[in-house]
Design a protein that fits this description.
The complex is a heterodimer of chains A (290) and B (262). Chain A is an all-alpha fold and 290 residues long. Chain A contains eleven helices and no strands. The longest helix of chain B is centred in the C-terminal third of the chain and has 18 residues. The chains are: A mainly alpha (290), B alpha/beta (262). At the A-B interface, helix 7 and helix 8 of A face helix 1, strand 6, helix 2 and helix 4 of B.
């Protein structure tokens, strides 16, 4: 009941000394927005052609006819890149939504209930967390069988532990606040306290961790598909395209370059957006709780 | 208003602690330490009365508040709210006891409108009222604590510390509880605002006749609101006296030290 965290003066100072990152943030948001927009638009209007069709000679370099060149079977790299980007984004986003739901429930319960419930949830996520993510992903692919389901479940299991831990830590600090104690005294039930009082006050943490999870998700998809456990041909994904491009790195570098560039730009932008959001939203560092 | 439902003839204590002890242990092995936060504390709060509980930091004031609010089970001894022991379900006591806690910044959920925060106890204790009837109660309550009812639509960050503490008082009173704990309720406010809030508590108590446990390290504040004063010293209740008597002639050496420090 008599709890303090950082004194206000200190928090304000922390906010002021942070360098302005608006320009970077805007650039990152534009880059990511562009990638998403183009990838989604290609599904609606197939301006880049059919990714499965053989349109020209094999391994032809970028030209007016084939803007990003063609691959080893003569398919348009641009069309495959757009399809692959879409697959990767959709899989990662779907997985992160699942992660968010699981982690928010587990994290809120752990943070609010404390005691053995917290111990059980935290130790379980420690176990998951202790696996290197790609090893865990391969393990899951071996169990589930290669394919999109393996990618999805791998991303969820790789991202759940960290997000659960962060949500639980944030929920724990909110649970100590006087308004939660007062609600308890008023007889408000635990589920209502979780969703009315804790959830809105940890939403910043959820958003920030969600963006980090998204970038981890894209990396896990890339890794799994690269190793052949993920998305299977003839479908494409960024990981699969990088793997295919790798085999022709010397003869046709454009095969590797395009998907790798999209992957790097996407992950960089997402992390930059996450950093900016953390600086602005995270209740541990800013005034969102005040 | 509803004060008619609390007949003045009802003089049974609203809160009774009988020989309540609480100890905290920390560390393991040779480093194991036990702190006795409450040592066979016996006290009672009569309806309409304010018992001031004073003591230095670490004397067990906050533990006493937790026990009195049913948030902490004592290791031994009995806690009776309106003559009944606390049940496992807090809902059974919903609306009968409330609290105004220390920190005006964290007393209200920053993501909810003030009116919703004040209404919350009613959503548990007065399910018989419709939403609009509950809102009506909130409006009345805000007026009673001296706030414009338009504050119901504002968010806590738009309010000053004193205004927030008034909102906390409104929330505590909205269910017409028989017993309210004020845990360092004015300590974080500046002196002028403290005086206003203390006067408000006095005024509302005269009208609603709730029993109050007023916990503070600030003897000046206690002198203004309390009818009786109890002194905690390292978990022991060393003195209980009427406020007047206590400030005129403290018995226990520790009480004398406290008053000299004032």
């Amino acid at each position: 009941m008599t709890t303090y965290s950082l004194p206000l003066s200190k928090r304000k100072r922390a906010v002021k000394t942070r360098p302005p990152r608006d320009a970077l943030f805007i650039a990152a948001a534009c880059a990511l927005g562009l990638i998403v927009l183009v990838a989604v638009a290609a599904a609606v209007i197939p301006f880049a052609g059919d990714p499965a069709r053989i349109v020209g000679p094999r391994l032809s370099p970028p030209s007016a006819a084939y803007p990003f060149g063609t691959d080893a079977l003569g398919r348009s790299v641009l069309a495959r890149l757009l399809e692959g980007t879409r697959t990767t984004l959709v899989l990662s986003t779907l997985a992160v939504v699942c992660t968010a739901v699981i982690s928010v429930i587990l994290g809120l319960v752990a943070g609010y209930a404390g005691g053995w419930a917290r111990e059980v949830i935290m130790r379980l996520s420690d176990v998951l967390y202790s696996f290197p993510s790609i090893v865990l992903a391969i393990l899951i692919a071996a169990v589930v069988g290669p394919g999109q389901a393996a990618v999805l479940s791998s991303i969820v299991l790789v991202t759940v532990p960290l997000m659960t831990r962060m949500v639980s830590a944030a929920a724990m600090s909110v649970a100590k606040r006087d308004f939660v104690t007062t609600a308890k005294i008023s007889g408000v039930s635990a589920p209502v306290i979780l969703f009315r009082h804790l959830l809105p006050n940890v939403s910043g943490t959820i958003a920030v961790q969600g963006t980090y999870a998204l970038s981890v998700g894209i990396l896990v998809e890339g890794g799994l598909s690269f190793l052949g456990y993920g998305v299977q041909p003839p479908r494409s994904s960024l990981g699969l395209l990088i793997q295919e491009g790798g085999s022709y790195m010397l003869q046709a570098p454009w095969l590797l370059f395009a998907p790798a560039a999209v992957l790097v730009v996407a992950i960089l932008s997402i992390n930059l957006i996450g950093d900016t959001m953390r600086d602005r939203l995270d209740p541990r560092e800013t005034r969102s709780l005040v | 208003m509803m004060s008619a439902s609390h007949p003045d003839t009802d003089t049974a204590p609203v809160l009774e602690l009988r020989e309540v002890s609480v100890a905290f242990t920390s560390g393991a092995g040779a480093k194991r330490r036990t702190v006795r936060a409450m040592n066979a504390v016996t006290l009672e709060v009569a309806p309409g009365e304010t018992l001031g509980l004073v003591g230095e930091s670490g004397s067990g004031k906050t533990t006493t508040a937790s026990v009195a609010l049913g948030l902490k089970r004592p290791d031994s001894g009995e806690v009776l709210l309106l003559g009944e022991p606390f049940t496992r379900s807090r809902r059974a006591n919903a609306g009968k006891l409330q609290a105004v806690l220390q920190h005006p910044h964290w007393s209200l959920n920053p993501r909810r409108k003030v009116g919703e925060s004040v209404r919350e106890p009613l959503t548990v204790a007065r399910r018989d009222l419709s939403r609009s009837e509950q809102r009506q109660r909130v409006t009345e309550m805000l007026e009673q604590v001296g706030l414009n009812p338009a504050f119901a639509e504002r968010y806590p960050h738009e309010l000053s510390g004193g205004q927030r503490q008034r909102v906390s008082v409104a929330r505590a009173l909205v269910t017409e509880p028989r017993f309210i704990v004020f845990d360092e309720a004015v300590s974080a406010l500046d002196v002028a605002v403290q005086m206003q809030i203390l006067a408000l508590i006095r005024e509302l108590q005269a009208e609603h006749r709730f029993g109050a446990l007023f916990i503070s390290h600030d003897l000046g504040a206690v002198e203004r609101v309390a009818d009786r004063v109890a002194v905690l010293f390292r978990g022991d209740l060393v003195e209980t006296a009427s406020t007047e008597e206590f400030f005129r002639n403290p018995q226990h050496p520790y009480s004398q030290t406290l008053l000299e420090a004032l």
